[in-house]
Amino acid sequence: MAAPITYPANASTPLLELTRPKPDLWVIELKNGQDNRLATDFVNKSIKPALDEVERQWRAQWGEAQKTKKKELGNGALIIVGRKDQDKFFSNGLDFENAIKDPNFFPDTFNPMLTRILTFPIPTIAAINGHCFAGGLMMSLACDYRIMTDGTKRNTWLCMNEVHFGAPWPLSFAALLRGKVGDHRLQRKIALEGHRFTPQEALKDGILDALVDGKTADILAAAEKLAAKFSPNAAAGVWGLIKHDLYRDSIKEMGKRPQIPNAISHDASARAKL
User: How far apart are CA 56 and CA 178, in angstroms?
Assistant: First the structure.
């Protein structure tokens, strides 16, 4: 097993740890405080470079597979998990107050991260070991699979709660939701009702792929089993290429740079037209 890599580079308090417990498995552990708020530096200096490193290592191995004709060398899967020393949060969403102050946060920071995960060249699994809110839920939706605690050890929810505190959705949120959730009634439930899903509800509605009776270690173990099942699908080198086509419309929308109005400016504009 390779030594862990921590991010940001040379930071005294790492925000992320990348491990490779098996030749065909990588694990990104999110460690930004207890609740993993998706702040600018966390995304740009930790999550994005960690994703780059995973792909760099996998592609080196895949290239070796082409030379040696050992197809299994091209296997690969990535697990993203909340910090392992707790069972309360996967991610509590964006650092919202600072995100809305930066007009470039979504087009230059958050949207590219979502697109990167959405089109990643090997299977991605969100090991949701606690609450998964707003931007955190979007990050998990960008993954190919989602496994979550069943909430028996601790109450746990998934929720897009922007409608309750007056935050408009960036195009990337709606585009990703449309790409991953086909039922308009479920889209409405997530986006307009801000429903707080229990793990059981989320599994029934197809947001999750599996539930685990246990804590973080148990969720990781289940995620590793799923990774072992599907990591061979990366060996042909087309996993990411197929996703680029599968989610083409979402990717196109996520790459746009629109102005995101707030409720007050939208109200002023609407009044002017009446």
Answer: 30
Identify the CATH number of the domain in which residue 147 sits.
3.90.226.10
Identify the domain containing residue 36 by its residue range: 2-273
User: What is the count of structural domains for the chain?
Assistant: 1
φ, ψ of residue 23 to 5 degrees: the values are: -55, -30
H or E element at residue 20: strand 16-22
CA-CA distance, 167 to 83, in Å (whole number)? Answer: 27
Q: How many other CB atoms are found less than 10 A from the CB of residue 150?
A: 18
DSSP 8-class letter at 114: H
pTM above 0.90, yes or no: yes
pLDDT tens readout for residues 188-201: 999 999 999 999 99
Using one digit for the tens of pLDDT, what is the confidence trace for 133-146?
999 999 999 999 99
Residues 202 and 224: their CA atoms lie apart, in Å, by: 21
Residue the block writes with tokens 């600018």:
40
- Residue 36 zone, left/alpha/beta (φ > 0; ψ -120 to 50; rest): left
Rounded Cα gap, residues 177 and 266, in angstroms: 23
Residue type, 188: R
